Amino acid sequence: MARMGGRRHLKAIAAPFYYPILRKKYKWTIKPSPGPHPIHASLPLAIVLRELMKIVDTSGEARKVISEGKIAVDGRVVKNYKFPIGFFDVISIIPTNEFYRVIPKPTVFIDIISISEEEAWIKPLRIENKTTVKKGDLQLNLYGGYNILLRKEDIDKKGINYKTFDTVVMSLKDKSIIDHIPLQEGSLAIVVGGRNVGRIGKIVKIQKGMRAYRSLVTLEDANKHLFQTSLNHIYVIGRDKPVIKL
Fold first, then answer.
1. pTM to 2 decimals?
2. What is the pLDDT of residue 136?
3. Does the structure show a pLDDT above 90 at 163?
4. What is 10-117's CATH superfamily?
């Protein structure tokens, strides 16, 4: 496997397989800067604008648009053209009031779809870890670099048991939790890694192993076909239907 970390530059031939670039035409490509998503599961903002959204023709145009503050990610203006864009991020084109969400898709791995302004302010986030802090409060470490502190009295009042790999639906306006979807049999999930990336199905069975990557999840898609993937590739997105457009 080609080396991608530890350097400021990235050769096109060594870029992750899903990069939508001409690998033999140019020697170098844009490497994502450190941020909320790892290099093996993200695209630089400039490449997203140029290759996926096709609102610019060159990297130079993309850098100009981004530096002028015309692009927002999750409601926050981003001026770094190397900013890493990953699954379920919301990209807003401020001058035209257009909104797009990044989703996993079979074969291409990363894709974008147009969404409404109303949906652009919600985001499903998987719980990656949780920590009990002072006074019994709970800190949730979420997918995409988000962290939320929940007061013990609020948790006790709502009676919700937040677990790793559950999903919380967050409002991007005030960073509050508006829904909690547990990882359990019957929940709807999408695969975010492995050979089944982008496939959606109901969770039929969860076989727990010593670690997440050794736990096996069986899902059933809309055509009643069963498929399996490891637990760390599962991302819960709803109960009977997805909470977001896919």
1. 0.89
2. 87
3. yes
4. RNA-binding S4 domain (3.10.290.10)
Cβ-proximal residues to 32 (8 Å cutoff; 6+ apart), any chain: 39, 42, 43, 44, 82, 83, 84
Superfamily of domain 121-181: Ribosomal protein S4, central domain (2.40.50.740)
Quick one: tokens of 167? 């999903």
Q: 65: part of which helix (H) or strand (E)? A: helix 59-67
Q: Is the pLDDT of residue 24 over 90?
A: no
Q: What are phi and psi of 27, to 5 degrees?
A: -75, -40
Flag the least confident range among 62-71, 100-109, 147-156.
147-156
Coil vs helix vs strand at 169: strand
The C-alpha atoms of residue 91 and residue 74 are separated, in whole angstroms, by 6
